[in-house]
TrEMBL record:
Catalyzed reaction equations: alpha-D-glucose 6-phosphate = beta-D-fructose 6-phosphate
Lineage of the species this protein comes from: Bacteria, Bacillati, Actinomycetota, Actinomycetes, Micrococcales
Name assigned to this protein: glucose-6-phosphate isomerase
EC code: 5.3.1.9
InterPro entries the UniProt entry points to: G6P_isomerase_prok, GPI/OXD, RmlC-like_jellyroll, RmlC_Cupin_sf
One Pfam match: GPI
Annotated GO MF terms: isomerase activity
Family stated for the protein in its record: Belongs to the archaeal-type GPI family.
Keyword terms: Gluconeogenesis, Glycolysis, Isomerase, Metal-binding
Keyword Metal-binding in annotation: yes
The organism of origin for this protein: Leucobacter albus
Amino acid sequence: MPEFHTPPIMPMAIRFDHEQLTLAPAGPTLTRRMSDLEGLFRDEAARAAAAAGENPVVYTVTSSPVPEANRELPQSITTIMPGTTSGEFWMTKGHQHPDHQGEIYLAITGRGGILMFDGEQTSWLEMLPGTIGYIPPGWAHRSVNTGTEPYAFLAVYPGGAGHDYDWVVEHGMGKRAFRGPDGSALLRPFAE
Ligand SMILES: O=P(O)(O)OC[C@H]1O[C@H](O)[C@H](O)[C@@H](O)[C@@H]1O
Ligand SMILES: [Fe+2]
């Protein structure tokens, strides 16, 4: 059998803690605060003011030890806090896979959505606990918390796909998700 790592990755069981929203054994984790999201919300001035003030945590990503390497299938739990910035729901940065490969998300808790953009079309998937969202190759993707509790999902993705954040800065995401009058998500044109 070919070996891709030193030491090789061995079969493993990964435990998901539904209360803590953690994986064990654990791999890398990251925390993204408002200061990490420059230029991504419609109201950049409001984002900058929040970053200069309390600088809240917007989301965390905790991974298993499976590496982001070709042919591996790493997993992560992303937890997005509830909130809005000038009415726009809190969200992940969003990225395109430089190597166009698909990805799946499984919603675990809370309420959210996946905004996808292929450069021409926008797609929006409602994500409730138990929903599996499929992201086809070539669709940039951003997750959004549309509820009032933390929204968490499991992602399983090809380890060699990579993360291109500049693509989203260059092309946008087609639409943005705002809190509508009744509290539910209202999609508006990206630049409106
Ligand atoms: O990378 P972001 O756009 O900030 O999204 C946060 C994370 O969401 C999911 O968990 C993906 O599988 C991760 O690869 C990604 O890093
Ligand atoms: Fe991805």
